[in-house]
Specification:
The chain has about 400 residues and is of the alpha+beta class. It is about 70% helix and about 5% strand. The protein has two domains: about 1-160, no CATH class; about 190-394, Tetratricopeptide repeat domain (Serine Threonine Protein Phosphatase 5, Tetratricopeptide repeat, Alpha Horseshoe), CATH 1.25.40.10. The protein is globular.
């Protein structure tokens, strides 16, 4: 019986210890951010930034997203709304996580050493596992690792040790880099590109190059993106997110064959890459391969059930495959998730255009353009509807 209790204690203590370690680590980052940053602080317990299907806890400036699936509780992330720009506060913010793990490992070790001999061995085993978990967390995070961590929003970060290493290396550029990161968060490429060029002349790291690729992609500077990808491939091994981003560059150029090759490569490396799955599905829609598109959108929605863009484009796939009811339900679902999702209105406008309801189509397409002028193919569609309206009025 004692052996069974021991095994049960170990089995239960391991996930408990990991949850405690991750929670303490990320809260430590958050506490430092509270004193040195303004605005809200998002803390993700159990993921790298996924807020879908999570319990949300609001405490003052803290938004805490807690993974309800213990089996997938294997990561954590702290994101201040405003980047910490000064060197010393940034150092404290990064170091706080591993330091808290080391501190608690020491506290647990002290308790174990000075526990009375008659202490319940279940408590002792739990404390030992907690200590090991804190030590593992400390070394895993403090030893620099240049392997990129892909966040749920597609951005890239590194473990605390690598972040401290880069922080020290770029000490003189820390303010500019923090401002650049803020431009990435705010999606303001015109503002960010000047900062990138300034930094890139002094510091050519994979992290900086990836930031430049994102900015030039947003500005549709396709050749510059290709040059930066060549630079990146010389400095770092390309990961699934890199191939997906490169594919998006070719999608913007309307080279769909090349784009599909790169999305496929991305998904070979990580079959659960949300953005590559989503963008490949969209490309299949453009190529009128609606069955393949539907398959990708189904998978993308399984990965992120809160994406209005996914539902918008799956709706189009369904309509094209003859499931009008299901397609319209998807598009309306997209609008209920995000009333500003331009592709929902674009695809709904396309549906009404093909039904011959030209004025309704024009109204919806115009709204799509108003929401996002970069909505793919929107100008051509509006021109087509207007031409048909003019022909009908003659």
């Amino acid at each position: 019986m004692n052996l069974l209790i021991f095994i049960a204690t170990v089995v239960l203590s391991i996930p408990f210890a990991r949850i405690i370690s991750i929670t303490v680590h990320e809260l430590s980052h958050g506490i430092v951010a509270y004193f040195f940053s303004s605005g809200n602080i998002d803390i993700y317990l159990g993921s790298y930034g996924n807020s879908t299907d999570y319990s949300r806890l609001r405490i003052g400036s803290f938004n805490i997203f807690i993974n309800r699936n213990i089996k997938k509780f294997n990561a954590g992330l702290c994101v201040p709304e405003k980047q910490i720009t000064a060197f010393f506060p940034a150092f404290l913010f990064i170091f706080a996580g591993p330091f808290s793990s080391l501190l608690l490992a020491g506290v647990c070790s002290y308790i174990i050493l000075f526990l009375p001999m008659e202490i319940n061995w279940v408590i002792l085993v739990t404390l030992v596992i907690l200590t090991l978990s804190f030590i593992l967390d400390f070394f895993y995070n403090i030893i620099p690792n240049n392997k990129a961590i892909v966040l749920s929003n597609g951005c890239i970060t590194y473990n605390d040790g690598q972040s401290l290493k880069l922080l020290w290396k770029r000490k003189t550029l820390v303010k500019d880099i923090s401002l650049l990161n803020q431009c990435l968060i705010d999606k303001t490429p015109n503002k960010g590109i000047g900062l990138f060029n300034k930094i890139y002349t002094n510091l050519k790291t994979p992290e900086i190059i990836r930031a430049g690729i994102f900015l030039y992609n947003e500005l549709r500077h396709h050749e510059k993106v290709k040059i930066l990808f060549e630079d990146l491939s010389k400095l770092d091994e390309l990961n699934d997110q890199d191939y997906g981003t490169y594919g998006l560059n070719y999608s913007y150029e309307e080279d769909h064959k090349k784009a599909l090759e790169l999305y496929d490569k991305s998904l070979e490396l990580n079959s659960n890459n949300f953005y590559s799955t989503l963008n490949r599905g969209y490309t299949y829609n453009l190529l009128e391969k609606y069955a393949e598109a539907l398959e990708d959108f189904n998978k993308a929605i399984a990965l992120n059930s809160n994406s209005a863009y996914c539902y918008s484009n799956r709706g189009l796939s369904k309509i094209k495959l003859g499931d009008e009811k299901g397609g319209l339900e998807d598009i309306n679902k997209a609008i209920s998730i995000d009333k500003n999702e331009s592709y929902a209105y674009k695809n709904l406008g396309l549906y009404y255009f093909e039904k011959g309801m030209l004025e309704k189509a024009l109204e919806l397409l115009s709204k799509a353009k108003q929401l996002n002028e970069k909505t793919n193919g929107i100008d051509e569609l509006i021109s087509k509807v207007e031409e048909n309206l003019n022909v009908g009025s003659k």
